[in-house]
Amino acid sequence: MVEPVTRDGILIQARGLVKRFGDFTAVDGIDVDVRAGEAFGFLGPNGAGKSSTMRMVGCVSPPTDGELQIMGMDPRRDGPAIRARLGVCPQLDNLDPELTVRENLTTYARYFGIPRRVARERAAELLDFVQLAERAGSKVEPLSGGMKRRLTIARAMVNEPDIVLLDEPTTGLDPQARHLVWERLFRLKQQGVTLVLTTHYMDEAEQLCDRLVVMDGGRIVAEGSPRTLIERYSTREVVELRFAGETQEAFAGKLDGLAERIEVLPDRILLYVTDGDGAVAEVHARALTPASVLVRRSSLEDVFLHLTGRTLVD
Ligand SMILES: Nc1ncnc2c1ncn2[C@@H]1O[C@H](COP(=O)(O)OP(=O)(O)OP(=O)(O)O)[C@@H](O)[C@H]1O
After folding, report:
1. Ligand 1 nearest atom to the CA of residue 53, by list position
2. pLDDT in tens, 155-192
3. CA–centroid distance, residue 47 to ligand 1 (Å)
4. CA–centroid distance, residue 26 to ligand 1 (Å)
5. Residue from 282, 232, 223, 234 nearest 262 by CA
6. From ligand 1's centre to the CA of 246, what distance in Å?
7. Domain 234-307 falls in which CATH fold?
8. Where is the ABC transporter domain (predicted)?
9. What is residue 2's predicted lDDT score, i.e. its pLDDT?
10. Which of 3.90.1150.10, 3.40.470.10, 3.40.50.300, 3.60.15.10 is the CATH number of 10-225?
11. Contact assessment for residue 94 and residue 108, using Cβ atoms and an 8 Å cutoff
12. What is the rounded average pLDDT of the residues 188-204?
């Protein structure tokens, strides 16, 4: 395989990247560097501009403005050459229901000019990898959502890509199916494949991403590893209190001085603290009796809330 052309190990570089649809700006001047071998995430709520960014990187939607270099090439000029070295797993499964599981891979391989024999071998290996070997001869339709997603991931690997783009790889899957997809993606990462994914699940971002950018309204609001983001923008622990009866605001005033920061949401109050159990003891010492109390560690959801004042999933 040709060595990827990189600048200092950077496979994807965006500077001031913009995507507009008419008057509407979906991606508003973002700077991104994705390094070879890392799992890089775009985390943000619906409408943040993640898919629009992925489509520009996938060379299916031209940038309106700014610079974009992928493996040292320019998508405006070198789209076909870039696409040949990308694997793409779109948000909606676009598998061919007329074909069998195996044929979905071998037919796709033909678009890349892969000889039939090689395609069959590769399809067998990939079906093994995504644990669908037993379904190779069956049609796509009866597969579960998780199986279809794994097949789409296998299809994205057919051309042995340098970069795999995954748009919301586990949206719509049940917890067990999600874990299986994560586990396979984790293995790809271990094999040195560069993964670029979008997600609005903070646990997915925490599980898979070495580095990520947090997007909101077309802009990047923070960047770093999940751990550094949590350390920078949150506290060690979070206490979630739910009060029954009146609105949560009615209780917030009674919690003054209990936490480094307090967030009041419509259904709960979050106390950002170092010592969760200590804070709970203090709540009870003030004769307050929440209907439920949960002490947990901080997550990327807290980072997003701190940066934007909103939750990731409404
Ligand atoms: N082809 C289009 N024409 C007009 N507006 C668009 C188009 N594609 C996306 N948008 C708008 O751009 C904004 C960003 O959309 P985008 O799909 O990039 O967001 P996202 O972060 O990926 O969210 P989602 O998880 O819903 O896909 C949205 O407000 C969307 O309605």
Report:
1. 18
2. 999 999 999 999 999 988 889 889 999 998 999 999 99
3. 5
4. 6
5. 234
6. 37
7. Alpha-Beta Plaits (3.30.70)
8. 12-242
9. 47
10. 3.40.50.300
11. no
12. 92
